[in-house]
Amino acid sequence: MGEDERSGSTESHRSGCSPHSHSSIGCGKKARKARTIFTDKQLQELEATFDKQKYLSVQDRMDLAQRMGLSDTQVKTWYQNRR
Question: In the chain, what are the domain boundaries?
């Protein structure tokens, strides 16, 4: 009986591709990006803009993101979640 048989480990388990694994690193998938923590100032500006305009054009979204030091995707996601 080999070492692997006694410990019950498998090749897929060693490579990090276990179906019970919480991490997708090593399975050919992209790792999830960390959650964004917005500053109070950023939240105030996002909320104020949202109160005036529930949907942003691409240009407005890009301008807002640049002004606030965020990515376009972060602003887009915040708006989607807020709606």
Answer: 1-32, 33-83
